[in-house]
Amino acid sequence: MRKFLIHTIELRKPQAKKSFQVKLPWTAKQVVGLHIDIQPNFHAPMDQLIADGFVEVGSIWLRLSGNRDVFYADTLGFPYARKKFDPTILPQGFIGRDDWWLTGTQFSFLKMTVPVESTLIEGYYEDQHENQRVDYNVKLYLELEINDRGSSI
To answer: Residue 60 burial by CB count (10 A; 0-12/13-18/19+): exposed, middle or buried?
Structure first.
């Protein structure tokens, strides 16, 4: 059976460094999908966002707390900094089997197989703005494979 978890990290200060933990259900067997989205809390004109260079805004890494192995690390940017589109095309949310709409674009999960041995995922996010206004959320979307209630772990 599949389950989806969403974890939000709020950023309000330039060069913020945030450690966080995501609590998984005790029946989780493995992480099978991941998507990370950045959602700005302000509405600047599209040309200004591209001209100001809001492409890379931060870096993130995720690891399992049991064996301390990093299973994901990346540099993140605003979802619409590389191409122009109308961010009001469709509402956000789950639309199908593996697809979601976020800020007007469709995405699918990055497929992975990460066995879960403990119920915590540890993470670290670092903002890369120097003195600019910072007001955005980083959302982690985790797709988990979980045991059915009747099965043993």
So the answer is: buried
Residues spanned by the domain of 34: 2-90+99-146
Best CA proximity match to 21, nearest among 128, 118, 153, 145: 118
pLDDT recorded at residue 5: 92
Highest mean pLDDT among 45-59, 72-86, 92-106: 72-86
The DSSP-derived string for 23-41 is EPPTTEEEEEEEEEEEEES
Alpha-helical (H) ranges within 8-75 are 46-51
CATH number at residue 52: 2.60.120
Total number of domains in the chain: 1
Average pLDDT, integer, range 15-28: 92
